[in-house]
Each structure stands twice: as C-alpha cells, then as structure tokens.
C-alpha cells in the first residue's frame, strides 16, 4: 500500500533538499511532486524567471524552468511554469501539478483549469490540509508531496521534518489568527511585496 505525505516549506531551498533526499531514499520520480510560488524568483544572472507570466498571473506561453532553478536531474529537471487559480505564477513538477491542471505539464505551461485543493483532496488529504497547503503556496511557500510505500513512510516523513517542513495544523492556526478561513481560488494572487511580508513573518526572507 502507498501513503501520500505532503508538507509545506517556507524556503524553496529546504524543499528542494527534501526532494533530493526523497529521491535518494528510493521514491520514484513519478511519485514526487513540487509546487513553488515564483513571484519573486530571479535566475542566476539576476533577471526574472517568470517572463512568461503577465501582471494578472496568467501564463502567456510555455516555459521549462528546471535548469533555470538549478534542477540538474530527477524531478527538479522537469519543472514547468504555469498559473493555477488563486495562486498566480508557480513553478511545478510531478503528479500533483498534473492533477491540478488536468494534464501533465512537462515543458509546457498554461492557465490551469483545475485546482490544487481538489488535487490534494483526491490524493487523500483532508479538506483542512488541502486548504492550508494551497494557501501556503499562494503566500510564497513551496509544497512537496510524495506517494510512498508503507515501508518507506516513516523515513520519508523524517526527511521532510529535518528539512524544516511545516504541517497543516500548525500553519492553519497561524493563518486563522489573521482572520483567514479557507483558500479562495478567486482571490487575487499575492504580489511581490505580499510574498516578502509573509516570508518575513515566518522568518524566511530568501527568494527561490
């Protein structure tokens, strides 16, 4: 039997470290997924990595960003740029993004027709978890999800924990202190300033 384990990361670097560790643990690439808010991403020469996203957060043409984000191989090499309602521009790879948009993204981007809350619930997460994790990406976080055999579940959870992941219960309580109730896919995407403020709130000011 398999179990789906998902965690939110405030730092993209921590999330990619977790993905690399999960791959070394033996989790197949097609059982892994990553979604990262790309609002403030800059590539290695200092220019924006989201040229294909307009001011409304819509993807205007396909883009492959795996190499740009430093993914030399494995899951991270397949990162693609797309927009999901309520999230704005994100970079993503793997089955969760494919489920959210209704098709595999690979190197092709486009405005998503599905939703990340539904994708997470379809994967077995509760309504609470799905809403909190979706909101976390909207606010600048990175989501890592893995489908693992029961025999690897404990080790996979340990990988996510030691790379500074955040559980839905903890972050949901923090969101509700400011009046948040649930993820709203019709709400405007966070701006660069919004993302920066949110990351500062949780002690992470680094970009992608």
For this entry, give a set of tags:
single chain, 208 residues, alpha+beta, 6-stranded antiparallel β-sheet, 35% helix, 17% strand, globular
* CA-based gyration radius: 15 Å
Topology, number of strands? 6
Classify the beta-strand content into a percent band: 15-25%
Assign a percent range to the helix content: 25-40%
Described by strand count, sense and barrel closure, the largest sheet is: 6 strands, antiparallel
Helix-strand pattern:
EHEEEHHHEHEHH
Uncertain segments of ≥5 residues (pLDDT<50)? 42-72, 103-113
Q: Which structural class fits the helix and strand makeup?
A: alpha+beta
Strand order of the largest sheet: 3-4-2-5-1-6
How many distinct helices?
7
| End-to-end distance | 34 Å
Shape: globular
Mean pLDDT across every amino acid position: 78
Description:
- By secondary structure, the protein is an alpha+beta fold.
- It has helices spanning 12-25, 95-101, 116-122, 127-138, 150-162, 168-176, 192-201, and strands at 2-9, 32-37, 80-84, 88-94, 142-149, 165-166.
- The longest helix has 14 residues, at 12-25.
- It is globular, with a radius of gyration of 15 Å.
- Mean pLDDT is 78; it is low at 42-72 and 103-113.
Summarize the structure.
The protein has 208 residues and is α+β, with helices and mostly antiparallel strands.
Note the topology.
Layout: E1 2-9, H1 12-25, E2 32-37, E3 80-84, E4 88-94, H2 95-101, H3 116-122, H4 127-138, E5 142-149, H5 150-162, E6 165-166, H6 168-176, H7 192-201
Antiparallel strand pairs: 1-5, 1-6, 2-4, 2-5, 3-4
